[in-house]
Design a protein that fits this description.
Elements lengths: L2 H22 L16 H5 L13 H4 L10 E13 L1 E5 L9 E5 L5 E11 L4 E8 L3 E5 L15 E21 L2 E26 L2 E23 L4 E8 L3 E11 L10 E2 L3 E6 L3 E8 L5 E10 L6 E6 L4 E6 L5 E11 L4 E10 L17 E11 L4 E12 L2 E3 L9 E4 L2 E13 L1
Antiparallel strand pairs: 1-4, 1-24, 2-3, 2-23, 4-5, 5-7, 6-7, 7-8, 8-9, 9-10, 9-11, 10-14, 11-12, 11-13, 13-16, 14-15, 15-18, 16-17, 18-19, 19-20, 20-21, 21-24, 22-23
């Protein structure tokens, strides 16, 4: 076997481990870095602080139990545009190439995130709904040449696309009692589709390298539980539990492209297998209206990432095994938001989020250029008629600076991820029948 082919085989297994590890960061994660919170313009404008109260079909995302209060048939559809900006400085070298210190900017792009919700109230106490949205996603895009982007030996392109379908049934237990205006519960199925593409350069020695490309997909099932307790017209509470996913990446394949100058004819891995238990999460919310036009909300969201300590991957046909250490942390996300109904047609909204990152910097890499975040959001709602409402939102995400040490065997250099940011624009349309 050509020595470059042996190196390719070893590198391929390592990349499979890193790639499935990245998929594992998606799951039901509600922490910084990979969760997509822009699943509705109204909720995003309020920093998603609407767990206790939400009176449109997007409640299927924020608190499914609230759909018992939505009359008739309601449909809501929307789209969000996310534009990130990240700079990374690296120092050192991999395989004797690209020595020294270099600052690199991630390629600009705009991510398009759609969402669709529909609810129907069967009678005074029962309602059903279906939500289709993008709960998690990631795209990191750098130049593929190591002389331009020194981190290319670890990763130069990653794209994760997920779609969740959430059929839901909700039931109102209590209505118009002295101690409760409404008490509702909900149960739903979570069907998650994940598609992944990973690209990195593999060092062949002698200054030569060749792209390694991995692609895979997965279907997984989980469930959601929710409670909404509306004490009166002023005060309401909500709790949402989202189960973890038992993720198995069984359809993965990888290929290393040929490099004729290096005498390397390329390789294909066949299949790979990986498994990890993704964490569950809890969301707690309260909404309060001190005066009728004003709704103030608070949300605390807990994701139990502490269970994600390592990842085991087996590559076929030779059955070689690789273990990637992760040791992530349990994290909280805190949101404060408000909505003010200025008149019958116009509502004003604003919010602020502190979003903690679960990644352990000791094991960080370039597929995960994330850290703690602060999110500032604002928006408005325009009620065109009794049947139609448009919602608009803008958000600014500030990503905290981070540093981590070199791990040459994984293609990671000494690294500083500079303070990053992202601009987000969102619009939704709600229809009531």
């Amino acid at each position: 076997m050509h020595p470059n082919a042996k190196a390719a085989k070893r590198s391929l297994l390592s990349t499979l481990a890193l790639s499935v590890a990245l998929v594992a960061t998606l799951g039901t994660a509600h922490g910084a870095g990979f969760a997509i919170y822009e699943t509705d313009a109204r909720g995003f404008a309020m920093a998603n602080a609407n767990v206790g109260r939400n009176d449109d079909a997007s409640a299927l995302y924020s608190n499914p139990a609230a759909i018992t209060q939505l009359p008739g048939l309601q449909i809501k559809a929307g789209i969000s545009l996310i534009m990130p900006d990240v700079d990374v400085t690296t120092w050192g070298s991999i395989d004797g190439q690209v020595p020294g210190e270099k600052k690199t900017s991630m390629n600009s792009y705009t991510a398009v995130i759609p969402n669709l919700y529909g609810t129907y109230r069967i009678n005074d106490n029962m309602a059903i709904g279906m939500g289709i949205f993008v709960p998690y996603g990631l795209k990191s895009d750098f130049e593929k040449e190591p002389i331009v982007w020194p981190g290319a030996y670890n990763n130069y392109y990653t794209e994760i696309e997920t779609v969740e379908m959430a059929p839901t049934f909700a039931y109102r237990l209590v209505h118009d009692q002295p101690w409760a205006k409404n008490l509702s519960v909900a149960v739903g199925l979570a069907i998650l589709r994940t598609d992944i593409t990973i690209k990195r350069q593999m060092a062949l020695g002698g200054g030569y390298y060749s792209p390694l490309i991995l692609e895979g997909d997965d279907w997984e099932f989980g469930y959601n539980l929710a409670v909404q307790y509306e004490v009166n017209d002023q005060l309401s509470f909500g709790i949402v539990y989202r189960s973890g996913f038992d993720t198995k990446i069984t359809g993965a394949s990888a290929r290393i492209l040929p490099n004729q100058a290096a005498g390397f004819d390329g390789r294909h891995s066949g299949k790979a297998w990986g498994k990890i238990d993704l964490p569950d999460s809890w969301s707690f919310g309260v909404n309060y209206s001190p005066v009728a036009p004003l709704n103030i909300g608070f949300q605390a969201l807990r994701t139990n990432w502490g269970s994600y300590d390592k990842l085991t991957i087996q590559a076929f046909p030779d059955g070689a095994v690789s273990v990637a250490e992760k040791h992530w942390k349990d994290v909280w996300r805190y949101s404060l938001g408000a909505e003010y109904q200025l008149n019958n047609a116009l509502a004003l909204r604003a919010g602020f989020v502190i979003d903690k990152d679960p990644v352990n910097t000791k094991y960080a890499d370039y597929m995960v250029p994330s850290n703690d975040r602060q999110i500032f959001s604002t928006g408005l709602g325009w009620r065109i008629s009794k049947a139609v409402t448009l919602d608009f939102a803008y958000g600014y995400i500030k990503i905290k600076e981070s540093t981590f040490d070199a791990r040459p065997s994984e293609g990671v250099l000494g690294t500083k991820v500079h303070t990053g940011n992202a601009h987000i624009f969102s619009v939704s349309a709600a229809f009531r029948f």
